[in-house]
């Protein structure tokens, strides 16, 4: 498996706090004197990502296998399109994405079985660092209650399977040479942020910087 240097991903079930933590990480990097963090996310804001988000709200209704292919197409553009992840990593930026291939293997694996998502994602490089936001699905869904609309995956029995699948995926990513760090996503945000920062700080791109530690 090819590893993409300078690339990290945040993963976890719905409501596990990856979006908030990416925002805090970006701020922490700037405070550290490292402004070259490019934060990004999947599904992307591009045309395929927009179609996916609409489908996640229930319209258009698409077959699970179609959605799996859309996630892969969106990812291909995200990686290799202009100003994409690959180009930025090659230029020496630290790229951190809120979701990537593990989301497809965990979520689409439930709906489509393992084979199709594996096939669709086999050629994408793995990230250098995978942060897994671990949180009991009951607690995660409670956090989502205040949101106006529910997406198709935001149900307890589905989220229980998502968590189990992520846990099963971790040794697989480790065998590919990815550094995997579990974050206690049930901890207060400042504590989770400390855990994230301590993992990210060990990436070679950040070890080059030498300012006082947190
Ligand atoms: P999410 O980051 O949770 O978006 P939001 O913060 O707007 O809720 O992602 C949307 C959903 O997409 C989430 O339920 C996970 C799912 N997803 C997949 O099923 N497969 C994928 O490959 C990706 C990237 C996301």
List the helices and strands in order.
EHEHHHEHHEHHEHH
How would a crystallographer describe the biggest sheet? 5 strands, parallel
Number of helices: 10
Through-space gap between termini? 33 Å
What is this structure's SSE topology?
Elements: E1 3-12, H1 18-32, E2 37-41, H2 47-56, H3 64-80, H4 85-90, E3 94-98, H5 101-112, H6 115-121, E4 126-134, H7 137-144, H8 156-175, E5 179-184, H9 189-200, H10 204-207
Parallel strand pairs: 1-3, 1-4, 2-3, 4-5
Helix pairs in contact: 1-9, 2-3, 3-5, 3-6, 5-6, 5-8
The structure holds thymidine-5'-diphosphate.
Thymidine-5'-diphosphate is lined by residues 14, 19, 42-43, 56, 71, 98-99, 103-104, 107-108, 151, 153.
Overview of the structural elements:
With 214 residues, the chain is an alpha/beta fold. It has a single domain, classed as Rossmann fold (3-Layer(aba) Sandwich). Helices cover 52% and strands 16% of the residues. The chain is built from 10 helices and 5 strands, in the order E-H-E-H-H-H-E-H-H-E-H-H-E-H-H. It has a 5-stranded parallel sheet, with helices on both faces. The protein is globular, with a radius of gyration of 17 Å. The model has no long low-confidence stretch (mean pLDDT 95). Bound molecules: thymidine-5'-diphosphate. Residues 14, 19, 42-43, 56, 71, 98-99, 103-104, 107-108, 151, 153 line the site of thymidine-5'-diphosphate (TYD).
């Amino acid at each position: 498996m090819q590893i993409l240097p300078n690339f990290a991903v945040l993963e976890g079930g719905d409501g596990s706090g990856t979006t908030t933590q990416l925002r805090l990480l970006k701020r922490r990097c700037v405070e550290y004197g490292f402004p070259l963090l490019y934060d990004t996310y999947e599904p992307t804001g591009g045309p395929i990502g927009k179609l996916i988000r609409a489908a996640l709200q229930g319209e258009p209704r698409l077959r699970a296998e179609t959605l799996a292919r859309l996630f892969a197409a969106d990812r291909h553009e995200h990686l290799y399109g202009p100003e994409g992840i690959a180009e930025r990593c090659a230029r020496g930026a630290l790229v951190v994405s809120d979701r990537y291939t593990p989301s497809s293997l965990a979520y689409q694996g439930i709906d489509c079985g393992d084979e199709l998502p594996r096939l669709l994602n086999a050629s994408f490089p793995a990230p250098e660092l995978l942060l897994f936001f671990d949180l009991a699905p009951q607690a995660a869904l409670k956090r989502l209650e205040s949101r106006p609309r529910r997406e198709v995956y935001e149900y307890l029995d589905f989220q229980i399977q998502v968590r189990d699948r992520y846990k099963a995926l971790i040794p697989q990513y480790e065998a590919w040479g990815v550094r995997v760090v579990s974050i206690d996503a049930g901890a207060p945000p400042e504590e989770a942020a400390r855990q994230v920062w301590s993992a990210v700080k060990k990436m070679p791109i950040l070890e080059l910087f030498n300012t006082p530690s947190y």
